[in-house]
Amino acid sequence: MSMNESNHSLSSNASEYSTTTGQIEVENPKMSMRNVDVSYGDKQAIFNVNLDIAKNEVISMIGPSGCGKSTFLRCLNRMNDTIESCKVSGDLLLEGQDIYDPKLDVVPLRARVGMVFQKPNPFPKSIYDNVAYGPHIHGLANTKFELDEIVEKSLKKAGLWDEVKDRLDQPGTGLSGGQQQRLCIARTIAVSPEVILMDEPCSALDPIATARIEELIDELSANYTIAIVTHSMQQAARVSHRTAYFHLGYLVEIGSTDDIFTNPSHKLTEAYITGRFG
Question: Given a cut of 70, is residue 105 above it in pLDDT?
Fold first, then answer.
């Protein structure tokens, strides 16, 4: 049997994976999602996803390309609002507040739920101005001294301060790829978010830069809730407390990362983990 045939035989009957295996609920969740559907025009991309994300946990979302994990992640700070054909339904709560309430201003929401993208995207500004931009527009600093403090603190938290402290006036785009990604993380941290979303943050980085970002994720989890989409199962195993496996728009299984990788309950999760498809 070919890989495609095996994949098809494992995934042809949606009734086998339309109900999530594992514990979706946590006590005192930071974010809570229920009955989430997402469509792009006539094409449905996410089907009835239910998931809690705990405070100060790192949760990884894994699955084959096109399974919906990045689409779901982008729902968590309404990044999909930028796509005209995208429709999101269901309940998505941040500490009990409906983030899709029509009266909710998305600007402060995206400060509370920050996003780090797959490809580092520093602004065409100095290193200092990249980090200072968010605090400035959100009014988080009243003086230059306060802004300086936020920039230094954010760069330190992102593990970048010692490398750039003597060249803060130089362009952020002049940094290496790994440094640019840490700059983007510092930029996200600077507005004091509660949740950090990361969409394959290491896919464009070399192994050394990837290891530094992974160390950083571990350090940041003491103060932030982190949701990460990754194609690297090794990375998910290294950095996350819980792992969610997506397949064809469904959340198939959620559990502790150790259990997902050593003793998955669903045959689709096991097939993906063992490399039989994906």
Answer: yes
